[in-house]
Amino acid sequence: MEQWIEFGIDNYIKTIEDGKLFQGENEAVFKQVFFEEQLKLHKRYKTVKKCSCPNCEKKSIKKSHTVSRKMSLEEIQENKKVVTPAFVEKYPIREEFIEIEYVGIGIATTFPGFCKEHERIFETFERAGTIRNEADIVRQAYRNVVYNCFIQKSLLEQMERRGDHYYEIRDVLAYKYIKKYDRANLLKSIKIVGKDKHIRNIEDFKERQLLFYSQLEYFKEKLWNEIEGRKTDVDFSSVLIDIKIPVCICGCTEIVFQRENYICSVDVIPFANNTLITLGFDKVIPKELKEEIDLKLDNPLAVLNFIEATMIYGTDNWYLKPSVWEKLGSKRQEEILLEMQKIEKSLFNDAPYSVFDDIRVGILNLMFADSDLSKKEWDKMLSC
After folding, report:
1. Among 194, 222, 312, 331, which has the highest number of CB atoms less than 10 A from its own CB?
2. CB under 8 Å, gap of 24 or more: what pairs does 51-55 form?
3. Which stretch of DSSP H or E encloses residue 192?
4. Quick one: which of 63, 151, 155, 59 has its CA closest to 105?
C-alpha cells in the first residue's frame, strides 16, 4: 500500500473514532442529512395512516390528540400555545441536548392515530369534560400507548435511514479526506468496510428501542382487549387531586423493580379545578411496587414531586403552561434541561429542582409550614 494512502486512512479512522468527522468543513454535510431525516420524521406526523385500532382498514384523521384539546390543553394554554421539550442533536452522534419549544395546542400531542369512527371511543369522557371511571382510564391509557408506539416506530425508521446514509457519506468524505495526500492523482474512489463507533452507537440504540417498542405494542394489544371487554393482567394506579397542575403528560417509560421490568404509561390530565394522575402497567405489579407508588401519590406535595420527577427523568412527552416555564429563570431552566439528560435516573428519583413554584409554596404554607420537609422543598426553588 502506498504510504500516503495508509497515512490518510489511519488519520481518517482516527477522526471518526474521535467524533470529529462532521466538524469544521464537514459540519454542513451532517446538518443536511440530519435535517433531511427530521423533515421526514415531521412529515410522518402529518401523513394520514391506517387507523391504529386492530382490524380497522379505514384511514386515520391527520391529527388525533393524545390529550384532549378542549378538556385539558385549553386549560393550560397561553395564546393557544404550550411549551414542550425538543431534542437538538449535534455531532458527535448521541451527544444531545434538550431545548424548550412553543407549540400550538392544535398540534400538541397529535399524531395520525385513529379513524373518525374510533375517535368516538374517547367521546365518553371528552364530552363530559372529565375522566370519571375505570373504563375512561383504560381508554386514555390506550390512546397514550398508541401515541408512544407511533413515536418509537418513527424513531426506529429514522435511525435505520440515518445508518444507511452514514455509510454513503463516510465513503464520500473518506475520498475527499484522503485525496488531499494524493499528489500523483492516483486515487479514483474509496470504500470503507466495517462498523465504526458511530454505527455501533446507532445499532445499540436501535436494539434498545426495538425491545421497548415491542413491549409497548404488547401493552397496546392488552389495553385494546380491555376496551373490548376481555380482561387481561394490566394494572392501574390513579389519584385525583383538587389542584389544577398546569401540565399534560402522555408518556411511557420502563421501570425496573426487584429485577423485573414493567412498561409504565403515565397520564397527567388537568381539568378546570383538579388533576388526574394515572400510572398504567403492562402486567400486575407486586405489593411492594404498589406501596411505593402509593407513597408517591399519598398527598399533594408527593404528587407534585412525582410529576416533576416524571417530567425530568420519566418522559419528554409533556406540555406545560408557558408562563410556568418562563418564571423559572434561565439558570434553573438550564439546570433542569441538563438534569433531563441523566438517563440512569427514573421517575422514582426525587428531582432536585422545582418546576411548579407557586403550587409548591401554597402546599408548603398550608400543610408543611413547620416540618423538616419544608426546608428541602424550599431549596428546590432557591438552589439556582
Report:
1. 312
2. 51/113, 51/114, 51/115, 51/117, 51/118, 52/113, 52/114, 52/118, 52/146, 52/149, 52/150, 53/114, 53/115, 53/118, 53/121, 53/224, 54/221, 54/224
3. none
4. 63
pTM of the predicted protein model? 0.85
What's the confidence (pLDDT) of residue 223? 98
Residue range 244-257, pLDDT digits in tens: 999 999 999 999 99
Helices (H), the chain: 3-17, 27-46, 74-76, 116-119, 123-126, 134-179, 197-227, 287-296, 300-309, 322-326, 329-339, 357-367, 373-382
pLDDT tens by residue, 18-54: 666 666 656 666 556 655 555 555 555 667 789 999 9
Cell numbers standing for residue 161: 435511514
Phi/psi of residue 159, nearest 5 degrees: -65, -35
Which pLDDT belongs to residue 94? 43
Residues of the chain with pLDDT under 50: 1, 91-96
- Residue 119 C-alpha cell reads as 375517535
Phi and psi based region of residue 67 (left: phi greater than 0; alpha: psi -120 to 50; beta: remaining): beta
- Name 213's Cβ contacts closer than 8 Å, sequence gap at least 6: 149, 152, 153, 156
